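Lecture 7 notes: from sequence to structure.
We start with the chain below.
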Amino acid sequence: MREPQNIGQAEFEVLRFIQDHHPITVRDVADRFAQSKGQVRTTILNVMERLRKKGFLTRKKSGGSFQYSPRLPKADLLSSLVGQFVRRTLGGSVTPFMAYLVRDAALTDDEVRELKRLVAELDEKND
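Predicted structure tokens for the same chain:
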């Protein structure tokens, strides 16, 4: 898949929900967002169709409605979006991102252990 297009905050929220509940219909997503955000079905349909056209979602006819699913597994999607952020926003430098993690992020012990593991993996790769 080519690098995904930009994604807005509302699109990202819908995509995250679909990632955790797929395959899913527009009605099911709309019901969830009507309760939590007051958004109507047509708004959710438009967001989901934008996500499909941008390559984030697939859809398949099942019964009388379309079932939507993410095109990429969640880990691959998040990795792609982080990479996009680093390239576009940080000019390819991970230093500001790492500085944020050290200074401002409230990391759990598990997250710190995982970061240490990843840094060790990076060290091995660079030796």
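Points to note: Helices lie at 9-21, 26-37, 41-53, 74-88, 95-103, 109-126. Residues 90 and 96 are 7 Å apart (CA to CA).
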